[in-house]
Each structure stands twice: as C-alpha cells, then as structure tokens.
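Give me the 3D structure for ATP-dependent DNA helicase RecG.
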Amino acid sequence: MFAATLDTTIEFLKGVGPKRAELFQKELGIFTYDHLLNYYPFRYIDRTRFYKINELDPDLPYVQILGRITSKEIIGEKHKKRLVARLTDETGTIELVWFQSLKWVDENLSKGKVYIVFGKPVVFNGSFSISHPELENYPRPATITGNLRLQPVYHSTEKLKKFFLDSKGIQKLQTQLIEQHIKEVRESLPLHVLEKYHMISKKEALLNIHFPKDVKALKSAERRLKFEELFFIQLQLLHTKQQRELRFKGHAFGAVGDKVNTFYKEILPFELTNAQKRVIKEIRLDTQRGIQMNRLVQGDVGSGKTVVALMSMLLANDNGFQACMMAPTEILARQHYESIASLVKDGLVSVAILTGSSTKKQRTQLHKELEAGEIDILVGTHALIEDKVVFKNLGLVVIDEQHRFGVEQRAKLWRKNVIPPHILVMTATPIPRTLAMTLYGDLDVSIIDELPAGRKPIDTRHLYEGQRLRMFGFMKQEIAKGRQIYIVYPLIKESEKLDLLHLEAGIEQMRYQFPLPDYQISIVHGKMPNADKQYEMQRFIEGKNQIMVATTVIEVGVNVPNASVMIIENAERFGLSQLHQLRGRVGRGAEQSFCILMSGNKLSKEGKLRLETMVKTNNGFEISEIDLQLRGPGDISGTQQSGVLDLKLADLATDQLILQEARSTVMEILKADPMLEEPNNSLLRTYLAKRSRGIAFDKIS
Ligand code: ADP
Ligand code: MG
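Predicted structure for ATP-dependent DNA helicase RecG (701 residues):
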C-alpha cells in the first residue's frame, strides 16, 4: 500500500476513484488532495439553530429542520418521476422532493424515522417544500463533523451531484483529508508576518475554514487565508515592479528647462489645481531617478489630465527627448493634437499628428522628421505603434484612456528605444483603491482628485417616463438659449436591431411631441458606416446640429463644450460607471450643465440606488466605490480579462484593510530584503520561483 500525501492524485482518496476524479478535474479544477483541501466552503449553516415548520418563510436561505418522515412515495412517469416525502414536526408538515437518484434516496430514507433536514424552503402550490434536501441522522454522532456547530456548504455542480458529490459528499471527503493529512500542511507565510498580524497557522486555518470550532475561529481562519491570498498577489506585482526597476534603466530627466518654464510662466492660461501640481511633481521626481517610470494617472473627466501630460512631454523635450501621446480613436487624437498645438503655438516645440487617415505623403515626410529629431511631440492613434514609426530619441509615452490598449501594445512602445521610454498611462475611469492596487499593482498611481476651480457641478435629475413632457419642455428651453443636447440610448446586446428600433421610435416621439422647426438632429449608432458616423459627429461638434441622438457609441472623451445637457434614456439599464462616463460628456463649458436620467416607472431596488447615487454625487471615485459594492469587481469596466480578480476568499469590496496590510507588508519585506535572500523569507523566494516556472510553461503550451 503506497502512502498518500497531499500531492497524491485525487483519484486515490477513498470514495473518489477514476470517474469522480475526472469530474473533479473537469468541473472544479481539482487534481490533488491539496487542491481539494484548498477548496473552501462558500458559506456555513448554524447547526445550533433549528427552525420550526411554521416559522418558514420564502425569504430564508438555507434552514435546518428536525422532523419525522411520515410518508414517502415515488410518483410520475418515466423522466418526470420524482420521490415525494412528507416531513412533520409539532407545528406542521412540509414536502421533500427528489428528482434524481430516486432509488438511492428510497433505500436510505425510512418512514417513521426522525431526521435533520437542510435546504432552501420554497413555496410550491401554496405550501412549503424543499427539493433535494440534505439529510442527517438524528441524534448526531459524536465525531468532528457530528459536533460541528457551523455546517460548511460547498459549491457543487449538477454533474458532481449525480455522483453524490453534493455539498455533503464533498464535506465527507474533506473530513477524511483533515483527519489523515492535516499534519502534512506546511506553513506558507513567513513566521515574522504571522506574528506581526497575530495570524493563525496555515494548518489551523485550513482546519477551521472547513470545520470551524465556532464563529470566532472561522473569522480567524478567513482572515488568515484572505491575507495570504492578497499577500501573494501583491508579492508578484511588487516583485515584478522591483525587478523591472532593477533591470531597466530609464532616461534621467535631470532638469526643468526653458520649454516647461516658458509654458508654465507665459503660456498656461490658468492656474494649475493643487492636484495637478502634486501629480506633475510626482512625475518629475519619478523621471529623474534614472529608472523607467510606469505610472498611472487617474482623474475624473474634466480634471485636467491633458495639461499634466503636456507638461510631462515638455519636460522630456527639455531634456533632449521626444515624446508621444497615443489616444484610442482618431477623433480623440485629433482633439488632443489641436488642443496641444494651440497651447504650444509660437514655436515652443514642434507638434505633429499621425493617424490611420494620414496620407502616404504625410507619413513619408513625418517619418523623416521624426527620425531626424525635428518633431518634439507626436500625437496619434495606434498608428504610432507600427514598426515603421521610428523616433530619434523617444523619452516619454503618454497613453490616454488606458483600458482600450492591451499590455502587448504597451510593450511594443517600450521597444521603440534602446532604453525604454517612461510610460504615463491616463485613465478617466476612476477605480476604487483596492481595485487599483490589484489591477495596476505594478504601476505607480497618481490621482487628480480635484476639479479646476469655478467648475459648476453638473445638475443631475431623475425623471420617470410619466414626466417626459417636462423633459421636452426643458430641452426646448435650453436649445432656445443656444445650447446643444445629447440623448443616449442604452445598447441592449442581445439585439442591435431592437436597439435601433428603440432609438428610432424615440426620435419619432420627439418629433411629434416636440415640434420645433429650428433644430437639427445628428444620429449616431453602431450599425452605421464609419464615414457617416464621423460626418454626423462633425456636424454636432461644429454646432450645426443641436441634438445628438446616439447609442453608447459616443466616444469617450469627445469634447463639445457647448453641449450642456445629457439625457440618458432607460438610465436604469446602465451601470454606474457608465452613467458617470456619459455624464462627463457635458459640464465642459462655462454654462451650467444638466444630466437627466429618464427611467421607466418601475425600478428595481438596485436600479433606484444607482440613479439616486448619480443624483447625489458628481465624484467619480465615490461612484466607483458604490459600483464596486453593488456589482463586485468582475463587472467594473476594464477588469473583465484580468485573472487577478479570481479571488477565492478575499473580496475587494470589503477587505480593503487586509489588502492594505498585505501590500504594505510585501513592500517592507522587499525593501529590507530585495532579493529575498534572508532565511526567514525563503518561503517567498520559493513561491516566486515556482510561479515563474509555471508562467514560462503556460507560454509554451
Ligand atoms: P480630462 O482630465 O478629462 O482629460 P482635460 O485635460 O480635457 O480633462 O481638461 C478639461 C478642460 O479643463 C480643458 O478645457 C482644460 O483646458 C481645462 N483645465 C485644465 N486644467 C485647468 C485648470 N487648472 N484651471 C482651469 N481650467 C483647466
Ligand atoms: Mg482627456
């Protein structure tokens, strides 16, 4: 008989075997004993609390009931067969129903016997029933599982359940693992870390996550395991960052020269906000170290990121380097180019633009000037990444609206110089701190958390469908004042055709109920050719059309200062961050701006909360925090593809404190022992070595 260890294939665990092992692998990615031991319950039932049948309520989650089986029978034909039993206590009776494994249940369930039953009660035909409840004999045996006060509940799948691997089945296997193998569990965190935060050992944590002694022990186990989870993510991120800094030199922008000074003293038409000053200083300090900068600048729409970018580029120019700025769309690139070119007029520096629609002749000329170092600042789209674009001496790359560019594209820009340029990534999508620390944990983050003075907050109102005439009245009034208006319709992914119908019906209704001769409408939606889209947008930008009706294709960052009203139809269908982004299209000029959220008369609780939040605050960071609480990290824009968010226990919405602790601990460790050579950090070195082998392997396969 071979001696099993935690690395043994799950197949060999008593009660598993080849078929279930295969299911474990396919359904849950569990291959070894260790994997299963690290498959945690997702919640617990209080086994000290028994519900009486007359206390049941359809709002209750899982409940535990003690009762006697008073009848059981198999009813129905063939594939509709089911086993129905009645469970009775002194207050009433409920039905227990099984649709699968009828034979097994029939053999194991005895009429007249008392059982402990677990399950979610639902109302069916006017009375309570529980389908596929879990059953336990009564009284409970005096074993570890028998003595549990908190019953673990594991996620399972339909396929696993067919092979009796429901929550109870998994619990049985966990019992076995704990009894036979818990002693083999090795500590994964350095002792000094455990001591610092008074955390329990890995062994104790695993024991208590599966079979908690009491609520306090469960909390300690959760805290320890969450910490560990976040700690190792931070270790990887910060280690990557540190290695990059050790390995890649960066251009040292030693001096602030004429260009920055002239711009700041003589050209800049306004006073910088304190936040802008702070961020520029952070960039200045970061770029003079001789280490490549990788910095993310987060700032709400309108917080003035462009001028921060421009001054950073001028700093590069002052130090003899070229700079470029990349935007996700042609319209945005053009806007940046125009605003930058108008700010640095009088020949302070030379600025050029390169996009997909630059002609061959323009390109040839531009390539030449770029290589000769005659262009100081190049603004453009993806076209900048092409290999043909060669700089004489690129020192800084600014990437606007980061989430549209992939890591691969970022890397391409790096290779545009022997010493990689400094990278400044700008995003107008505020993300909560915990997310930023996890998603961009290998970047330094600067935050512009202040709007320029005198900016009037956008006045946001929520109107119900029944108040539509008021909305039309308001539009009329604003158009009469010479303002322009956006009306946005949500995109319903399932049917673009329906979206369009919806949008067209909306325009019809508007023309009918709002008959003014002197307004023109631009219509922009995903289904129309690019050229038409550009044409319609251009008319709106030039003020020839007063109203722009669009699906959500309205470009991020499009700047039409005279547009001061944003109307969002079916606003309850949008997520918070999207609503905030859309609202950011207005409030760019001197006029008071408005955002009107139109919704149906019936709203879900969450939909209502979203709209209330929008009405209450203009602060993007506050909104992103609420969004995170409402939807969880997976749905926040730009995070979908990121594997770092597959957290097992930790929750970025609620575990901010643990994340802080984990991150600062890693920072301290890496600072004191950069190569992790100290014996008491050897666990960490081993972890990283294993990971990097794993990653290399992933890339090959
Ligand atoms: P965003 O952060 O959304 O990219 P922009 O850089 O486009 O914002 O700035 C929005 C507007 O605010 C621009 O018209 C810009 O000139 C102006 N602006 C930027 N900073 C200031 C400031 N400190 N004071 C006054 N206006 C400013
Ligand atoms: Mg911008």
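The chain is about 40% helix and 20% strand. Let me know if you want a second pass.
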